[in-house]
Amino acid sequence: MSIIKEAELPGLGKKFEISLENGDRVAVVIHDEGTREVYYFPEGEDDPLSGVTMTDQEARQVGSIISGSFYQPRVLEKLETAVAELKIEWLEVRDNSPVAGKNIGELGLRKNHSITVIAVIEDKRKGKTLINPGPSYVFTPGHTVVAAGTKDKMKQFEELLQKSPAEEDDR
Amino acid sequence: MSPNMILNLGLAFTFISLAIYISNKIKFSSIPFLILVGMLVGPHAPEVSGISLALVQRTESIDLLSRLGVLLMLFYLGLEFSAGKLAATGPALFKGGTVYVGLNFVRGLVFGRLFFQNWPEAFVVAGITGISSSAIITKLLVDLKRTANPETEFILGIMVFEDVFLAIYLSVLSGLLFSGGHLAAWDIIPGIALIFLFIISIIVLGRRIGALLEPRLSIKSAESFVVIVFTMLLLTAVLVETIHIAEAIGALLLGLVLAETVHSKRVIQFITPMRDLFGAVFFFAFGLEIDYRLFGNAVYITLAAVLMTVLGNIFTGLLASWLAGYKARRGFNVAFTIIARGEFAVIVASLAVTAGVSQVLPAFAALYVLILAFISPVLAKQSRSFYQAYTRVVDLIPRPGVSSGKEN
């Protein structure tokens, strides 16, 4: 694991310095007004070789790409399911989903399906999100649901959200 | 009269905007530009081919705004500061910072005594030349992309140190100034001691007082919040004035108290735009008062002061970073960056003028800030070349070492 050093930069913000396994260091400066700076220090150097400056929003986007929320490296995907049975997925509510129009409480998601809804993205473009929705949240087509549960339960939940009512009858 | 007043204010803000716009365009601190523009369009403006450029009068309204500017700047300084931050700085910084601030101040005091021949002025000069401009230096560090360098923590730590020093310095200064510059030690010392005690107790008890205020400030409405905070600021200024402490210090103290509450971030958010706006008026108004024709006697003293500051600061900066355990190369970055002087030099000078200590001081401070503002970015940018020059000299050591900046 890498070592992270934290330092206060009074009047400017905060600095996080990450020592990588190969000896290089990466420093992230978070300014109080939101700007981020990332600097690269080659092994043994005290002056940065290069750096980038990002706005708050750009930094969040880059950050979520690095953390793997859009695309996970394959090695990790396997590892994750193998180690912990937990899965977290982003699922869109389809128009013809049988749960559309029903709320979390009446479906009894946690009790009947062992599924926890962590967040709901109501509008992807506007970035309108609902964190930790209550039992009164109504599943609405077009929304994206972020849910957690074990692997097989999640599979069932995914089908519930995304298949048509006709198919459900065969069950 | 009233349309003229608005016209005057409108003109003033036009020039203020122009100065700030230009300074941002060429990536420079706005403080020297505001002073310069103030000088060029104020009552003492030059005449260009028979037409006087004196477009802006120093009216009561400009005075009021500039006074608010000082209050807000010091209020902000207090808000930004927290005892926790100081405690987190660690022993290395403590050693380096104390030596740096102490030596700089003593140097300024000696310089002031030599050139101005009396102690009150020497004390003011020490303040003007001793306290770096955290605004200019922070901007420099960002522009030079040095925010992540190891020595930057140290540089910004020194700035925090100087803020503490500034609070104490201003308290002594206001004691000195309220006594009208009479130098009967017995008259002043009790007053200074009282203010000093008062300030220390606010710093120590800040959290307690903050805890008292905290629930009372939990106001949802942004409108009520900003109005109440501003009222508190004005009332504190009035209150401390009645017990003979400069209003600016009252603002600083209120800032220190509020910094210890959970509301500090919110207050900073509301105060920052006001500080920028009225602070700009303050620097501009400071420029309005300055008559460049009277520079004559001040020029040589100012040049000497600049030389002393640059050489002295290189020495104290290197010494402080050496004490804090930084290598010579880092030390050069520290020493050549912290030379800039700005807002505090101007604030100290204007406080001294209000109290009538000296009439030469504003011209001195303006010229001093102007010169240093233009020299210091160059020095900071070139710190590496200075370091290389230094290593070359060290390599040729046989001659008894006289290096570029090592002299005191």
Automatic annotation (TrEMBL), chain A:
GO process annotations (BP): potassium ion transport
Limits of the RCK C-terminal domain: 76-163
InterPro entries documented for this protein: AAE_transporter (IPR050144), KhtT (IPR026278), KhtT-like_N (IPR058776), RCK_C (IPR006037), RCK_C_sf (IPR036721)
Superkingdom of this protein's organism: Bacteria
GO molecular function, one term: monoatomic cation transmembrane transporter activity
Pfam families: KhtT_N, TrkA_C
The protein's name: Potassium/proton antiporter regulatory subunit, CPA2 family (TC 2.A.37.5.2)
From TrEMBL, chain B:
Name of one Pfam family that matches: Na_H_Exchanger
Membrane topology label: Multi-pass membrane protein
Domain Cation/H+ exchanger transmembrane residue range list: 16-380
One Gene Ontology biological process: proton transmembrane transport
InterPro entries, per database record: Cation/H_exchanger_TM (IPR006153), Na+/solute_symporter_sf (IPR038770)
Main location: membrane
Transmembrane domains' residue ranges: 6-22, 34-56, 68-87, 122-142, 154-178, 184-205, 217-237, 298-320, 332-354, 360-380
Domain of life: Bacteria
Keyword Ribosomal protein among UniProt keywords: no
Alphabetical list of Gene3D superfamilies matching this protein: 1.20.1530.20
One GO MF term: antiporter activity
A cellular component annotation (GO) from this entry: membrane
Subcellular location: Membrane
Keywords linked to the UniProt accession: Membrane, Transmembrane, Transmembrane helix, Transport
UniProt keyword Nucleotidyltransferase present: no
Family indicated by similarity: Belongs to the monovalent cation:proton antiporter 2 (CPA2) transporter (TC 2.A.37) family.
Descriptive protein name: Monovalent cation:H+ antiporter-2, CPA2 family
Organism in which the protein naturally occurs: Desulfoscipio geothermicus DSM 3669
Biological classification of the source: Bacteria, Bacillati, Bacillota, Clostridia, Eubacteriales
